[in-house]
Amino acid sequence: MNKVKKASSQLTRRSVLKASAGIAGAAALQAPFVARAQSSESLKVGTYGGYFQDSFDAHVYPDFTKDTGIEIESIGEPTGEAWLVQLETAARAGQAPADVSMMAQVPRLKGQNSRLWAPLDEAAIPNSRNLPDHFAHRYEDGSISGIGAVSWYITLVTNTDTYPEAPESWKVLWDPANEDSLGLLALVTNSFLLEITSTTWFGGTGILDAEDGILQVMDKLAEVRPNVRLWYRDEGQFQQALETGEIPMGQYYHDVTGLAAADGQPVRSTFPVEGGVLDSGSWSVSKASERIEEAHVFIDYMCQPSIQSKLSRFVGTAPTIRRELTDLTDEEFDSVASDIPPILPRYDIYNARGDWLNQKWSELIVG
Amino acid sequence: MNPRREPALWPLALFPCAALTVFFVFPFAIMLAVSFHRRVEGGFFEPAFELSNYLRFLTPFFGKILATSIGLAATAAIIVVVAAFPFSYILSRMRRRAQSVILVFILSVLSLSEVIIGFAWSTLLSRTAGVGNLFHWIGLVETPRAYTPGLVSLLLGLVYLGFPYAVLVIYPAVSRLDRELPEAARMSGASPLRAFASVTLPIMRRSITGALILVFVFTLGAYLLPQVLGRPRHWTLPVHITDQAIFQSNIPFAAAMAMFLLLVSLALVGLSLIVGNERQGAST
Predict the structure, then answer these.
(1) A245 at interface of B, judged by CB pairs closer than 8 A
(2) What confidence tens digit (pLDDT) does each residue in B224-241 have?
């Protein structure tokens, strides 16, 4: 009850932010810029602009400054790989638009390949022991390139007016009855539709190991094309269409959909029997940063069970630490995660065959 | 005015020259250089001199996308000019005050970004909040439907975007047009249509060509409208350039595609100017 209230009081402001973030994000695309590094005393922390940044500004940074005395300068990142490009370009000029950045896994791996991230000292992050191993990302020599910050699920979402019954399986995406009514993510690297398709129709993501397997999965995925009305790059564009029923079904973020539903929007998020897609963001530190020590303090602070529980309650993300360490109730846990085994993204294939995949993907979508 | 003072003015030209060099020539040179750099897959890029980025572009897939981009921009430019010419003509015959009000309104559209225009049109053409409901209410259609995404909605957006530019180019020429010339043609027995075709149109040819080129080049760069109002098959080359640069961090390939787009549009503009000059040469 309390949570719902909080969520809805956040939501009026949130929806405005969401819409403006969409526009600001698109505007940022129009004129990609490299943020100027500032020589201030504070630690610059980048999170996705809009909802994430706003939530961290409200619920995390003030307490962090109170506890550690370190001031935070909050930076809004564009999603996708735009931020990686800016960090790379700036680092070449010896500048860091942000000291610590929340990075999605594919850009984090790419940054790792070009050694963009400063290696982190595990001893200075004792709380990192709370995280399962797959959330501690390492260079080949074992030093840490990134630490799990938040995780979230991509699930099957529907408009409850158009679909009174919740769908059960990802297979509904292929149902001819849903012609021209889906909204799917437009990029191979953030939609994870290859993983969804292979888990739904080919018994798991193992088939994606080889190129001919990937092509087989793509052929299957090509069958959904007539059902897709919108391949979206901007979240705001799809969320609005989902809420109005303009595009009544698609893939979207579990937490955001839950918050919209709590605010009275006719939307629902369903974990299909095949599982939701578990994606995550990591904290990584630019090698151009001059505040490495403060960055360690910040990352350690974020790995505490109390902070992870707080993020689940206030930001709606799934915890990156083991469930038993958190003090989340079942209801709180269900609103951000699920016990159905998740579909784990195959970041390795995007890293190893990125350009090939991207080319085939473009051909698949453009048709 | 005084010829003795003229030499003192030339240093003033240094500033625009320097600004052009710093803000245009340098970035362009960097982009040109990057287009030959080596893409490091799963990483960023490193300095090199390779043609692979250009070779990757030379495939039927990208050829089709280039053709789509040019086709869309050309269609939009033609529609815009066909609409803007009579509009400007009628406008120039109106009272001064009315002209100013309408011009200010038209020019204020220039202050809207592609994002706003795209989302406004997508709402206007949607099933749940769009004109379909109006048609349904009037009784034209049985159930409201969406008119977006699609080719027509995309063209509407592009035309809306380009229209003010065409008016900007055509209106001054139309308002300077000597009305006695078509009248003389009429008095010599030409029909209004013939007077228009053989007298007014040739006088206006330069500004019409100018407007066509301006709108063509301008809409060729559109990348947001195709995403918001079009289907994937209408995604233009700039959409794919953005994908490569922003989402795939493949800056060398994005730069090579941008160079290609630039060369093709320059070639088309050059060609249209040559054809225009030849015709002018033939008619005089």
Answers:
(1) yes
(2) 999 999 999 999 999 999
For testing the chain B interface, which of A85, A88, A265, A267 should be mutated: the one with the most B CBs within 10 Å?
A85
Q: Which of A340, A204, A344 is nearest to A269 (CA)?
A: A340
Residues in chain A, pLDDT under 70: 1-40, 79-80
- Give B251's contacts in chain A (Cβ within 8 Å): 85
Residue A36's pLDDT is 40
Mean pLDDT in each 10-residue stretch from start to end of chain B (284 residues)? 60 86 90 90 79 90 93 96 92 91 91 90 89 88 87 95 93 86 81 82 87 92 92 93 86 93 88 75 55
**Hey, what CATH class is A154-277+342-366 in?**
alpha beta
Predicted TM-score (pTM) of this structure = 0.79
Query: Is A23 near chain B, with CB under 8 Å?
Result: yes
Asked whether the beta carbons of residue A114 and residue B44 sit closer than 8 angstroms, the reply is yes
- Could you give the C-alpha distances from A305 to A162, A308, A312, A321, B70, in angstroms and in order? 40, 5, 11, 7, 56
Verify whether the Cβ–Cβ distance A23 to B40 is below 8 Å: no
User: Regarding the domain with residue range A2-151+278-336, which homologous superfamily does it belong to in the CATH classification?
Assistant: Periplasmic binding protein-like II (3.40.190.10)
Asked if B40's CB is within 8 angstroms of A114's CB, the reply is yes
Residues B132 and B141: their CA atoms lie apart, in Å, by 8
CB of A24 within 8 Å of a chain B CB? The answer is no
Interface of A with B in 126-145 (CB under 8 A): none
Instruction: Show me where the domains of chain A are located.
Output: 2-151+278-336, 154-277+342-366
Share of chain B above pLDDT 90, in %: 43
The whole-angstrom separation of Cα A157 and Cα A251 is: 6
Which residue in A26, A85, A367 is closest to B224 by CB distance? Answer: A26
Q: Which two tokens stand for residue A129?
A: 């022991």
Residues 6+ apart with CB under 8 A from A115: A139, A287
Question: Is the complex ipTM higher than 0.85?
Answer: no
Name the residue facing A80 among B224, B235, B246 (closest C-beta): B246
Q: What is the DSSP track for B163-213?
A: HHHHHHHHHHHHHH--THHHHHHHHTT--HHHHIIIIIHHHHHHHHHHHHH
Q: Using CB atoms, which residue from A30, A80, A246 is nearest to B146?
A: A246
**Which domains does chain B possess?**
71-246+261-283 (1.10.3720.10)
Backbone phi and psi for residue B42, each to the nearest 5 degrees, phi listed first: 75, 5
Is A81 within 8 Å of B61 when comparing Cβ atoms? no
pLDDT at A9: 36
